[in-house]
Amino acid sequence: MKIDTELIKELRARTGAGIMACKKALEKTGGDIEKAVEELKKEGLLKAEKKLDRAAKDGLVYAYIHPGSKVGAMVELNCETDFVANTDEFKQLAHDIAMQIAAMSPIAVSRDDIPKDVLEKEKEIYKEQLRKEGKPEHILDKIVEGKMEKFFKEKVLLEQDFIKDSSITIEQLIKLHISKFGENIRVRRFCRFRIGEE
Length: 198
Description:
Elements: H1 5-15, H2 19-28, H3 33-51, E1 58-65, E2 71-79, H4 82-85, H5 88-104, H6 116-132, H7 140-155, E3 161-162, E4 165-169, H8 170-181, E5 186-194
Helix pairs in contact: 1-2, 1-3, 2-3, 3-8, 6-7
């Protein structure tokens, strides 16, 4: 199937992928641009997986203040080189992540960063609620497991749905940028401030 150059240009504009990658994705999907976007996302995520263990010692600290100056966030976003750290696209990623933190108030970068005592306390609260609802003891652990997954999705930055595109998580957003830049990228730490909050 011959792929129209305008279609390739459109796909390239939407994804930032190379011309040949766009052409191949369109050929594979029979010229369906939406499916081609998905195809490129999948390929990018696979490439990104291979880079996740590389050291990311450069990067930047980015601060976002929400209009009205009542809430803000600061994030340290690491990459492998200052060349990537200084690109507008990397700065935009840092901006988007800081805005996500300000809006969604995560408590940790990943689930591994949440202290065990916090997790145990959360599980106990859920179990107590379920007992009060009269749920049988033998199924409590299974229900609590489901509630904990929901807790992680709401409170862990990497597992949250991206506020600008709920079809991807923050982790997937970062992996898409890893595949674009060819470097590992990671959120090292963050803090969030809101007027009057302890």
